[in-house]
Write a structure and sequence with these properties.
The chain has 387 residues and is α/β, with parallel strands linked by helices. It contains 17 helices and 13 strands. It has a 7-stranded parallel beta sheet with strand order 3-2-1-4-5-6-7, sandwiched between helices. The chain has a 6-stranded parallel beta sheet with strand order 10-9-8-11-12-13, with helices on both faces.
Length: 387
């Protein structure tokens, strides 16, 4: 069987979806000794990055096709099907919803979430309003057809499966839940390397940590508001470190802080916009954080809390969407829309070594449920069952 996988969003620079694609192909090639794979890459740079990551898994079972079509573009919709057809694959896996509408051969699609169904907010784009609304119409058409025509839909959580069923009239059996993973062993090994710690990380101590984007649904304005109350009410000397690519949305958050708190000078030095962090930096940031805080209003899965748990970092998180399902009893939960509740749930944890220790142990137990190898095994079985 020849299996095609769209890897144009490969790598952590593309956030959670990029990490999902990376771990999917790395782990598939470790366990699959029968099938051949065609990876559709965006450019030669991405091709070399994949080859570098695969290392020992490289073999004649793998081929690469350059498909220099931007994701979510008209060109992608028009040109991608022709490129795929020429390869003669038996099955295609689109690891995101952006399936070309004219593609009619057998495929599986991973639907990570339906975020735009819930937050069709012009604040979540840098496009002009008219163009954003036009793209929103296109998005809904594309995802509707992807859901309807996929032989199988992979969802990362029960929450996402139910969300899909709420919006689309399809058979529930068509949706297979395949949890994502967390690579405890290699990340912990990485975090224990003391010989060359990152100086930027070394200069941080006694901090609350957030890792991710700053799209509106991530709810970081309320996290900042809660942080201000936490410091003022309880006089705790902690920093707030925000890790993620510095982009338009991070800049908007900075403007929010300056506008709302112009006279609070300590915020300048105690809210740290760290920027992008590679895996080695993330290892240090997670491991040394006093508490990981995840105030998101909506997640299809939510990987960062599990990554935090893998480093023994206590987690406080939103009680909405998939987050309680994924984190189980290993986190302290709060209503992300209630700033005072966020404060009152965070403070007892950072003030108590006993609470931190309990959450740390529960976190280690919780992450045992998630494995990238298991994710690849279940995905491979889906491929086999389809053909």
């Amino acid at each position: 069987m020849i299996i095609g996988i769209d890897t144009r969003l490969y790598g952590t620079k593309h956030g959670g979806i990029g990490r999902y694609i990376k771990e999917l192909i790395l782990n598939l090639l470790k366990i699959d000794r029968e099938n051949q794979y065609v990876f559709f890459v965006y450019n030669d740079k991405d091709k070399e990055a994949i080859k570098c990551d695969l290392q020992k898994c490289l073999s004649d079972k793998i081929s690469f096709i350059t498909s220099q079509f931007r994701w979510y573009s008209i060109k992608e919709q028009i040109m991608m099907p022709t490129v795929i057809k020429k390869t003669g694959i038996d099955l295609m896996h689109f690891p995101h919803f952006n399936v070309p509408m004219s593609y009619n051969d057998p495929y599986v699609s991973t639907i990570h979430d339906l975020i735009i169904h819930h937050f069709p907010d012009e604040r979540a784009t840098t496009l002009p309003l008219w163009l954003y609304r036009l793209k929103l119409i296109g998005y809904k058409k594309v995802i509707k057809r992807a859901v309807k025509n996929a032989r199988v839909i992979i969802a990362p959580s029960e929450f996402t499966k139910n969300d899909i069923l709420k919006f689309y009239k399809i058979e529930a059996a068509k949706i297979k839940i395949v949890h994502e993973g967390v690579d405890l062993k290699s990340k912990c090994q990485m975090s224990n390397v003391k010989s060359n710690p990152n100086v930027k990380c070394q200069n941080l101590n006694n901090y609350l940590l957030y890792v991710g984007s700053v799209y509106p649904h991530k709810n970081l304005e309320k996290l900042v508001d809660a942080f201000v109350i936490l410091r003022n009410k309880y006089k705790v000397d902690v920093k707030l470190v925000l890790v993620g690519k510095i982009d338009y949305f991070y800049n908007q958050l900075q403007k929010y802080i300056i506008s709302k708190y112009p006279n609070i000078n300590y915020l300048i030095s105690n809210i740290v916009f760290y920027g992008y962090a590679d895996d080695s930096e993330l290892a240090q940031l997670y491991k040394n954080a006093k508490l990981f805080v995840f105030p998101s209003l909506y997640e299809g899965f939510g990987l960062p809390p599990l990554e935090a748990m893998s480093f023994g970092t206590p987690v406080a998180a939103s009680n909405l969407s998939s987050i309680p399902e994924v984190c189980g009893d290993a986190a302290v939960y709060f209503d992300p829309n209630d700033i005072d509740e966020i404060v009152e749930k965070i403070y007892p944890v950072i003030a108590s070594e006993a609470k931190q220790s309990l959450l740390r142990q529960k976190g280690f137990d919780q992450i045992k449920k998630y494995s990238w190898t298991k994710m690849a095994q279940e995905t491979l079985q889906i491929y086999k069952n389809m053909l």
